[in-house]
Amino acid sequence: MPPAVHPPPTATTQQDRFFLGTSGWAYPTWKPDFYPAGTPSRLFLQTYAARLTSVEVNYTFSKLPTAMQLQGWLDAAPIEFRFSFKAPQRITHFQRLRDSADSVTEFLSALEPARTAGKLGSLLFQLPPNFKADRGRLADFLALPAFAQPRTQIAFEFRHPSWFTDETYQLLRDHHAALCVAESDDLETPDIATADFRFYRLRKNGGYSAAKLRSMTKQFAETKESGDTYIYFKHEEEPTGALNACYLLKLLQKARGVQA
């Protein structure tokens, strides 16, 4: 029998929304703690989207989805749900942001159905760890016409510490791009606002304790910036990240007085 589907979660108010999830959903090992036992893989996304408000799609790092594939994802999620997509490695790792205009246009064109459906979240450009700061190259990349019309939410995850300077933050502000606040066991990004939305990747091994999640709730709920906040936990074979995301979403809804 199909699994029981929870009422669609809300992302809080239109002006100040939280989009929570993990980096992926296609994990049979998440049964039975996250997906009910017996849930077929074809219903994973539908079940996921009934409990969380967003997902970071890592699939696009290596391959763009077909139109039919993307439409299937969109159809499985409610209107309030948001899909964020990781930029292709061709752009971030092979071209390293240089001469990428055609690649960016192809990437955005493939995702246009998500924008049309109102379900497009942020695009994440994750740079390789050995990519040292090159603000001239970043400036040229941010100025690509494809990002301007219509304006797209884009976030950058820098994994070399040379990027963490006031010059980088100002360059991101000038182009309405977010600094991805990535927290891992190896490197932590400064939590600095550079856009009218925020993007967090919480990647600590082993997940987060209830006490830590309650502390995060205070941090996120009391932020003075308005706009969308995307929060993605690490995807693992165990459903720890998904369960952390569910718990934090409920805490944030309660903190903001939103009916869960």
What does this structure look like?
The chain has nine helices and eight strands. The chain is an alpha/beta fold and 260 residues long. It has an eight-stranded parallel sheet. It is globular, with a radius of gyration of 18 Å. The two termini are 26 Å apart. The N terminus is likely disordered.
Helix segment tally: 9
**CATH topology, which one?**
TIM Barrel
CATH class: Alpha Beta
Beta-strand content estimate: 15-25%
Order of helices and strands: EHEHEHHHEHEHEEHEH
Total separate domains: 1
Low-confidence stretches: 1-7
Query: What's the CATH H-level superfamily name?
Result: Protein of unknown function UPF0759
Q: What is Rg?
A: 18 Å
Which architecture per CATH? Alpha-Beta Barrel
How many strands, which pairing sense, and closed or not: the largest β-sheet?
A: 8 strands, parallel
The largest sheet has its strands arranged as: 1-8-7-6-5-4-3-2
End-to-end distance: 26 Å
**Shape estimate:** globular
Helix share of residues?
25-40%
**Structural class, please?**
alpha/beta
Let me know the number of strands. 8
Mean pLDDT: 91
Summarize the structure.
This protein has helices at 44-49, 67-75, 89-94, 101-110, 112-116, 135-142, 166-174, 210-221, 240-255; strands at residues 18-22, 54-57, 82-86, 120-126, 154-157, 178-183, 198-202, 229-233. The protein has 260 residues and is of the alpha/beta class.
Keywords:
8-stranded parallel sheet, 260 residues, globular, alpha/beta, 31% helix, TIM Barrel
What topology does this entry show?
Blueprint: E1 18-22, H1 44-49, E2 54-57, H2 67-75, E3 82-86, H3 89-94, H4 101-110, H5 112-116, E4 120-126, H6 135-142, E5 154-157, H7 166-174, E6 178-183, E7 198-202, H8 210-221, E8 229-233, H9 240-255
Parallel strand pairs: 1-8, 2-3, 3-4, 4-5, 5-6, 6-7, 7-8
